Amino acid sequence: MTEPSLNYVMCPDAAEGHRMAYWQWGESDSPHVVLCVHGLTRQGRDFDVLAQALVAQAGVASSVGIRVICPDVAGRGESDWLKDPAGYQVPAYAADMLSLLAHVHAQSPIGTLDWVGTSMGGLIGIVVCGQPGLPLPVPVRKLVLNDVGPALQWQAIERIGAYLGKSGHFNTVQEAADAMWTISQSFGPHTPEQWLALSQPMLRPVSPAADSALRLHYDPAIAEPFKLSTKEGAQQGEAVLWQLYDGIQAQTLVVRGAESDLLSLETAQAMTQRGPHAKLVQFEGVGHAPTLIAKDQRAAVAGFLLG
Asked: Rounded to whole angstroms, how far apart are CA atoms 244 and 235?
């Protein structure tokens, strides 16, 4: 399977609701579902390489295969932009994931549910997995938190805020890829082909004209709630996130870029000592956040989920 199918689910909000897109890989009726949720400015196609690896390995190991679901969080990718930018926050995203899982479960029942969350997608995972009373089809069995935890380094939040919401205009995909690389070198080494493949889904035409310039895929208004963040508010939020983390029952793997400026080694190690007592794996030469494309990163996540 070289391309995923594009699907949609309606999600309620304070306005008239919004349509969230999701990409589906693998067997559409497999009871084993892996939900992969991307980072703040990214979209679901970030997981193409990981999804293909999971589908291939599960196809060998199991007669029922696997279903990998990769949503475009609201305001990103092929999903609707919200009428009220105040909805661009983790609790609302978590509610959308519950709607998505109910929709997927109705299409074909979920028997085993795993979660892979990169950065923001991991925070959404902590919120969902840390509250046992939520209406999930089944509890999350295994949780991968990719370079994120309950405590986040403020300097990294400031770094991200410096470019968030600046969608830019680009004449070619390569020009856009080069511009994105200047703010994404912390992702670690990628071949030019790998980076171009990661960059292409990040772009949309500025207008319907055939020779239109390109822009980044996301709604610039996702920056509005982010810019209201303060260091004091972030510190208060940590206590809530640690409480949620301590409530997680899923087997948990923390993936960390050894040079990450968002997830400190101290926090990552604390995550192995409390709550679900996560297993920690680190990758040298990588900061925030591992893209799960490199063979060793891919193998660590696939081995944890399918082992």
From this structure: 15
